[in-house]
Amino acid sequence: xxxxxxxxxxxxxxxxxxxxxxxxxxxxxxxxxxxxxxxxxxxxxxxxxxxxxxxxxxxxxxxxxxxxxxxxxxxxxxxxxxxxxxxxxxxxxxxxxxxxxxxxxxxxxxxxxxxxxxxxxxxxxxxxxxxxxxxxxxxxxxxxxxxxxxxxxxxxxxxxxxxxxxxxxxxxxxxxxxxxxxxxxxxxxxxxxxxxxxxxxxxxxxxxxxxxxxxxxxxxxxxxxxxxxxxxxxxxxxxxxxxxxxxxxxxxxxxxxxxxxxxxxxxxxxxxxxxxxxxxxxxxxxxxxxxxxxxxxxxxxxxxxxxxxxxxxxxxxxxxxxxxxxxxxxxxxxxxxxxxxxxxxxxxxxxxxxxxxxxxxxxxxxxxxxxxxxxxxxxxxxxxxxxxxxxxxxxxxxxxxxxxxxxxxxxxxxxxxxxxxxxxxxxxxxxxxxxxxxxxxxxxxxxxxxxxxxxxxxxxxxxxxxxxxxxxxxxxxxxxxxxxxxxxxxxxxxxxxxxxxxxxxxxxxxxxxxxxxx
Length: 518
Description:
- Mean pLDDT is 81; it is low at 1-34, 69-94 and 386-401.
- By secondary structure, the chain is of the alpha/beta class.
- It has helices at residues 7-25, 29-32, 45-54, 82-89, 130-140, 154-165, 176-183, 206-219, 242-247, 262-275, 293-308, 361-371, 410-413; strands spanning 58-61, 70-71, 111-113, 123-125, 143-148, 194-197, 227-231, 251-257, 280-286, 319-322, 328-330, 350-353, 356-359, 376-377, 379-384, 393-395, 403-408, 416-422, 429-436, 442-449, 457-464, 484-488, 491-493, 499-506, 510-517.
- The radius of gyration is 25 Å and the shape is globular.
- It contains 13 helices and 25 strands.
- Helix 11 runs parallel beside helix 12 (361-371).
């Protein structure tokens, strides 16, 4: 959490921790009642259900944890890179956060020490890894994304494909890896498509490793279905090799940014176009260091920009996946909060404590988008009023059902981002998403052109802190900043009342969604 709490609140939090530890020691059934497992898995039901409420369609297990190069029994080789250290220690499975160390009984897997990031050298458990994450995603009905160490060999990655997909019965053309998966408790093949090789690092021989995985996938009846990503650090030129061109749109570059993604996506798209390759892009980390209203604005603006540019021919047309990182985080745990690590800060959308799970304001950006989603973008313009400046932003149209105009005075128009979409067919359902990044409220008119009815019903959802960018949700008031629903009215506006309009006051530093329904 942020450091804004008073001394009384800090003392109370410390007292609460002491009480909770005492209750846990005495196995209080009242305290532990919340800790029901989700689908019998080693994850809290309450925490998983919070992720489901956000509408996330995929879960990525990845990040700094794969940047390990030593464990409890094999020291790092001085002056050597990770690959050389592995060879000196006796082979590909001698060290590191490698997949073959993450299977089997959880209690026997041991630990690894982190190699990168603020928690360098800290021991991390192997008891919850990629397979537990895949099991959770499978139970949730969402797509798992797993990031593997860049030092995994092509042979070991091929074995992973067998472990995931081979038939468990040797009588049915299976393999020893399929039988081993069944013995580990998963008799049926996993349903996973997304793989990343390395995290924020140059992955050696990326295309060759992906080709080896694809060859084994084809042998298991999964040819053409798997998708392989490399960190942006590896560069876009890696997609120019013959092996990469053969895999084409199954290959991806993973862009990591600070939640303003369009520029990075445009750069990758331009590089791919210049090389005439068909690889694509994903954004699998959006690091803002914060979980307050600065993150609310960043998430909402980023989604508006990416969805507007996703139409055929748009800069984001090559983007197939974008995540909010981190979706889940332990409250107040990040070593980055220490001064020596530049106060990196907690950035979880959802926080959990021993006795509760609760959402931070950026979480609600995603629930608002999910709950008001319409599939077809329409032309959207943000402009000053007739006496003000010219248009400040616009988005491409993928539908001809109508268009939306948002007008305000010249100064306010510069701070507003808008995106609009309609349902299938006639414009009977319209969603308009509005971000006011300004420090003052903005009196705004939303004009709906081409609406299928003259008097639609209007609903407004507003996420606001009254302009306080540092606002977040404390555990003692977990719904302090969450969406507020209200009624919006439409009237005929303009010369002769020829347009359908809605007058709104957008709060400072806010995210608002207007829904019009015939």
